[in-house]
Amino acid sequence: AALSPPSCCQQHSDEVCESCVVKTTLTAENAVEANKLSNNYKFGFKKWKSHVTARPWEDRSEIVKELYSDLNVIRGSGGSTVTCGNVLYLLLFGWWLSLLYVLVAAVMFVTIVGASYGWLCWDLAGYFLWPFGKVIQKVEVPKSRRALGTCEAGAEASGAGESSALLGGPVPRRWRPWCWADARYWQRAGAVAWLCLGYPALALAHGLVCVAAWLLVVLIPVAKLSARTAARVLLLPPERVLVRRLRMTEVPLEGEVILCCYRAVNPYYYKYAVDGINVFAVNLLPLVLVTLVLGYVDSHNHLTSSPIKFTLALLSIMPLSYYIGMAIASISAQSNFAVGAVVNATFGSITELTFYITALIKGSREGNRCYAEIVKSALTGTLVGCVLFVPGLCMVIGGIRHQEQRFNSRSAGVSSALLFLSVGGVFAPTLFSKVYGKLVCGECHNVTQNPLGHYLCHNCHFDLMENNGTLYYSHVQPLVYTVSLLLPAAYLIGLFFTLKTHSHIYDIHISDCHMPGHHHSAVVHWSRWRALVILLLSTLCMSACADLATEHISPILTNSTISQYFIGVTVLAMVPELPEIVNGIQFALQNNLSLSIEIGNCIAVQVCMLQIPILVLFTIFYPTNFTLVFSDLHVYASMFSVVLMNYIFMDGKCDYFQGTVLVMVYFILLAVYFFAPSPSGC
To answer: What architecture (CATH level 2) is domain 276-447+455-507+524-675?
Structure first.
């Protein structure tokens, strides 16, 4: 889908696009994509950049088409093949692959019966040392060889002139020793020797190259090269494989081209997708399996330590968050508004809630208040990060390409008002406790040696449990429950306001113009049932990874010299939001800063109006150490962030300088958390 100006339909009648004059018009390839685009502008719905349907091939750019090519297309001269990426291939893979082919060729020559394969390996050794600008072809064996299958027939053919009618060049030398017919090829001793002695080692080597190159993403052309070689080239009869160098003066080749590679590195492969799934999410999926196996099989840490398991569990949350996001977007785009709203409300915050709830359960079982403080730090970190870091980073990156970016200040104002309301409601019990609570200090020293003089106290906090907790149970707890009911109600009112009564403030119109290339039927990547299954499986794996993360976070909390505040505010808060941050950056690069801002605002509002009330509700049924009373640092950081964000967003336009201000303030707050002492109870 693309953002288009109101004049998108000037080539059609004025009656068709009368509304385009006053609305921002979005053009979509099909109805499903149009529904997804519309959902992106709905408050409370997950914003998703990637397509949920397959884009028409003719609508894609030449750069993207090249990503999905099979490396069998011969292009015109594109300059020298000596590039940094090709040299990198030589250093990483080329030299030892070539050496391996030479060794296998020697082995096949020793077997005598496999000499034809020895010549093939010798040719491929030169090819894989530097495959760029060369071509591997599948050629036809002369009919006289197929019919007779004898060396005499080969002699007759050579007597007629040892040249190939297809290629105009000499017959490869590996055709000369052997005169086998294709029909009896696999029954010969040479094929048996090849499959037993040569092919396994080469297939294993190409498999390793394929995996390594695929994981590096930019080297995916090398992965395709190796996969096609192992799956096809090495399984062809040697007399049907021809390796040659392309020259500008040569006529077009008539034989079937199997491999033709020009570049080993393509930086645009970050756009590559497999069945609609980004290549990075595909590469990180095995990490989830490794994490689950190590976490539950090696429960006594015989193979790895707790910090490694914690790191793996945290990294596994990133691809799972991506799969959950894409599943939600796919279901919402293929369903009506009610189903989409239910799915977004139910699973929109599932990533964070699974971690918070498992951490609270573990803290309750161990009687450790530190887990509750970590959860509060993560909640605050998510709020501050989504208010400052996410929009600030999008402004900076988008501002590099666009000098000034504009956004819908009216819709941003709705989110800002809800943020003010939610922050005030969340921190109301904290302010109440500081007004009416009793200040208790762990240790005090008289600095003047006078009983009436000045005292220096440490580890001070407001005690709410004085007189058997009368203040907390009679005043603070009812306030917490009241706030926890009012905040979700305010969220529902915000949904009704933005989606029903005042939906016009988003100023969005999905064009139904029949533009060329935009009338295709939808071919969805994931059907509704498939997306639902992936959503449930990802949620289940997310719960397991969150359980492992909380299980192995204890050594980090007890042995680390870094403040627990900092760990919660940074790592635990922002890692699950990385897919959302990437979506925001992509929107900003397309000069659609409104969605970038909405991503951060929507997450921040959901933290205060949905996640925290759900945690309070959870503590009613499963008592934990979680109370809605935050430290002063959390209160000041959150309120200052919301005020600053509203000041920046007042005029509806921004540039990279304003984004830099937001990012710098965020890093200043991180420095404060880094040097802050650990919370009481840790």
So the answer is: Up-down Bundle (1.20)
